[in-house]
Amino acid sequence: MNELQEIVTFEELRIARASLPEPVGFVPTMGFLHEGHLSLVKRACEQSASVVVSIFVNPTQFAPTDDLDAYPRDLERDRELLREAGVDLLWIPTPEEMYPPGFQTWVEAEKITKPLEGAKRPGHFRGVTTVVAKLFNAVQPQMAFFGQKDAQQVAVIRRMVRDLNMPIEIVASPIIRERDGLAMSSRNTYLNEAERQAASVLYKSLLAAQSAYKKGERSADSLRRVMEGIITDEPLARLEYISCADYDSLEELTVVSGKTLLSLAVYLGRTRLIDNLVFG
Amino acid sequence: MNELQEIVTFEELRIARASLPEPVGFVPTMGFLHEGHLSLVKRACEQSASVVVSIFVNPTQFAPTDDLDAYPRDLERDRELLREAGVDLLWIPTPEEMYPPGFQTWVEAEKITKPLEGAKRPGHFRGVTTVVAKLFNAVQPQMAFFGQKDAQQVAVIRRMVRDLNMPIEIVASPIIRERDGLAMSSRNTYLNEAERQAASVLYKSLLAAQSAYKKGERSADSLRRVMEGIITDEPLARLEYISCADYDSLEELTVVSGKTLLSLAVYLGRTRLIDNLVFG
């Protein structure tokens, strides 16, 4: 098993990075790792000569009303999981070094950040693209691994990498699910028992729409209505949005053809969950 | 003398870049090269193991009312000058490949782009930082060379590199001047004979303010008034702005102390010229 080296500053990263065998695979995370993260790390270890993982709960992608302070943390456990997975370098930058006084440069994708999560969380994706650009520039990976769970995030980062000519391959890994279909998320820990049980309704609604599609339904509105019906039947669930959109541009569809992203956001109590499914 | 290799596409660049000895020095230009550019190229050749020059008249840093179409071009001559200077790689990307359909990701520095040139040319620096980030990502240089002539551009790019953790050293080279003090610029070719003669008034005003500073003047307003008096005495000149600002932040000063940037923009007929001087 590799030795896991742990670093904090950009200068430590620069020195450690210089001696890593290439290609370098990079998995940026906000910590509190679950099976979903570990599937990314595993894939990175398989596909790269060395693997860097960052843990950084990025303040600029949270709104003032968001759950930044409440975001769950367990560094001891994360460290152990990454050691077992065979990661070479764990980078835990500080907010102070990431955003020093005078910081003022932002990376922003336009159209693709406007719908879905972007519509509900203004400024969120500007924070994401900015911090990911910073992490990429500092780590200089050849490959970076993201979870398909955050489908719009993957689409936005792919767009950024293409538009800004970053020499990095973006690899998206499938959603890892609990037995009842709930997509793994650090936020699942916020759910009480009843909410946890009700939370499988997100995936059920996606499967129902997929099933309708497989039976020949091509009206995007009909697929959205299938999902909506299932969510509204669950008394603990409160629907935020349902989308049936083009996979690359995230534009809402009228008629389904080509690669399609079904996605939704649902509140269970005060916890906001998202899920998605790709077909076509 | 080196062989000058000339390329157009990102793919050609990727292949050529892979075999360049490091450190790689990079000089991004808009072409129509003059002594100012060549001083940057010369410095790049002295300080780097290989040198890449780009020629790209970047549409996103021109406003619709700007002089994009009229911007002077002479590729034959540029090519010959770069060959003589010992440049390794000349990259002439196309606007179509730089900004393909669907392009939508921008890099933007905030506060530092607001005064001076940024105030007169809204959107200009967003175009500059975006294209420079793209060029940097594609060329992957260790050093990049800019002219101090565009003082705010240098400050903005330094800010971007620091904020986004780009592993690139920014080298700013002194302004190269004609015999009468006029700063070299591709736009000088727009001047008629009378305007050309009057154009030395920009540097004269900077020297007069510097002289007042050396005699002990520390009021920024007084230094601005010295400059303003000299510009308004020239009938062909029309003042746009005069600034006495902190060198790093570009904030206007009340009392001069520390590193200071005197700068101004002046119209001679329809041609807009800028100049600056650093002291302290």
From TrEMBL, chains A, B:
Keywords: ATP-binding, Cytoplasm, Ligase, Nucleotide-binding, Pantothenate biosynthesis. Its EC number is 6.3.2.1. (R)-pantoate binds at residues 61, 153. ATP binds at residues 30-37, 147-150, 176, 184-187. It comes from the Bacteria. Pathway: Cofactor biosynthesis; (R)-pantothenate biosynthesis; (R)-pantothenate from (R)-pantoate and beta-alanine: step 1/1. It is found in: Cytoplasm. This is Pantothenate synthetase. Beta-alanine binds at residue 61. GO terms for cellular component: cytosol. The lineage of its organism: Bacteria, Bacillati, Chloroflexota, Anaerolineae, Anaerolineales. InterPro entries: Cyt_trans-like, Pantoate_ligase, Pantoate_ligase_C, Rossmann-like_a/b/a_fold. One of its GO terms (molecular function) is ATP binding. GO terms for biological process: pantothenate biosynthetic process. The reaction proceeds by a bi uni uni bi ping pong mechanism. Catalyzes the condensation of pantoate with beta-alanine in an ATP-dependent reaction via a pantoyl-adenylate intermediate. The gene is panC. Belongs to the pantothenate synthetase family. It catalyses: (R)-pantoate + beta-alanine + ATP = (R)-pantothenate + AMP + diphosphate + H(+). Homodimer. The active site is at 37 (proton donor).
